[in-house]
Amino acid sequence: MGLKDQLLSLKMMMFGGKGGVGKTSCAASSAIWAAEHGRNTLIISTDPAHSLGDSLGVELSPGIPTQIEGIENLTALEINPKANMSEYKELTNINPMEEMGMSGLMDNLPLFDDMEEIASMTPPGIDEALAFGKILEFVETEHDYDLVVFDTAPTGHTLRFLGLPETLSGWIGKLLKMRLKIGNMFGAVKRLFTKEEKKEDKSLEVLEKLNNAIMNAREDLTNPIKNSFIIVMISEEMAIAETGRLLNELIKYNIPTSTIIINQLYRDTTELCDFCKARRKMQNTNLLKIKEVFGEKLNKNLIEVPLFREEIREYEKLKEMGEHLIN
Ligand SMILES: Nc1ncnc2c1ncn2[C@@H]1O[C@H](COP(=O)(O)OP(=O)(O)OP(=O)(O)O)[C@@H](O)[C@H]1O
Ligand SMILES: [Mg+2]
């Protein structure tokens, strides 16, 4: 399926690759095209160093979806890189003894082994992970968008999140199990003494909802009818190596990928200066390798995009880029 058909039919598309290669420009340009071809489109930047607003030429506030003026059907969102942890804080600091005014009494119960494990497995950056989890939850909940385009952070950062559904749901699964254990055990004990009505435990619900959404997201992310990871690269040796590694990781996580954009290519014109000619020669050599390895051997759909004279920013330029991306 070419980029055009993907933009017309998929539910999610993720644009990723090395830093500075043109991920945001390609994602924004593609999202505009989809929106103008009748698909209600949401473009989400998951890069904590957001530049989506700059690219589109609009001001975006973290966490607030903004309808883009002048482009029907296009909404943009830069995610808040840190999740609102208050919702989860009590989940990670579970201390039922304290809740019951009995702290310190039963510290050596086997139940607490689980807690130690949870405490030690709460990975650094869990707030970022949960922020991404919340996005997946949003995508999996009823919404009006036909297509969600992800403008992702440079490779390393994004890769951590591709494995996230497993990590998060493993983590949440353990928390859930533990909450249930604690709930049953201490809820019953407490009611014996206090006759207090069973307090509604909202946190369980929150966790269960998040977990379900993440499992659904996992299914969607790996389904080629629903999602595609679009790799953006430049024609340089280091980029070829990194793209190879990225492809391996995508295979590992079962994320469908069929399209590679080779961006910032010097055009063949006679007016090139010596410096530009040398760069074009270098790019052409690498382009041959890219075609052989990614095109012929791995059967990827390759899209070549020229280096523009100007920076690619705002509607007109993004549209112009679109003409090269989609044909
Ligand atoms: N084909 C092109 N011709 C000219 N300029 C380009 C082209 N593609 C991208 N640019 C410019 O290169 C810069 C980086 O592009 P962009 O922000 O899209 O890359 P990115 O991969 O998203 O970067 P980051 O890794 O920082 O998120 C921008 O200033 C953009 O305007
Ligand atoms: Mg970017």
Short description:
This protein has 327 residues and is an alpha/beta fold. The chain has helices spanning 3-9, 23-36, 52-56, 86-92, 96-99, 111-121, 126-140, 155-162, 164-194, 202-221, 237-252, 274-297, 314-325; strands at 12-16, 41-45, 66-67, 74-78, 147-151, 227-234, 259-265, 301-306. The two termini are 13 Å apart.
Polypeptide structure, described:
- The chain has helices at residues 3-9, 23-36, 52-56, 86-92, 96-99, 111-121, 126-140, 155-162, 164-194, 202-221, 237-252, 274-297, 314-325, and strands at 12-16, 41-45, 66-67, 74-78, 147-151, 227-234, 259-265, 301-306.
- The chain is of the alpha/beta class.
- Helix 6 (111-121) runs antiparallel to helix 9 (164-194), helix 7 (126-140) crosses helix 10 (202-221) and helix 9 packs antiparallel against helix 10 (202-221).
- The chain contains 13 helices and 8 strands.
- The protein has an 8-stranded mixed beta sheet with strand order 3-4-2-5-1-6-7-8, sandwiched between helices.
- The protein folds into 2 domains: 6-81 and 146-162 and 224-274 and 299-319, Rossmann fold (3-Layer(aba) Sandwich); 86-128 and 164-211, no CATH class.
- The longest helix is centred in the middle third of the chain and has 31 residues, at 164-194.
- Adenosine-5'-triphosphate (ATP) binds at residues 19-25, 47, 51, 154, 263-264, 305, 307-308, 311-313.
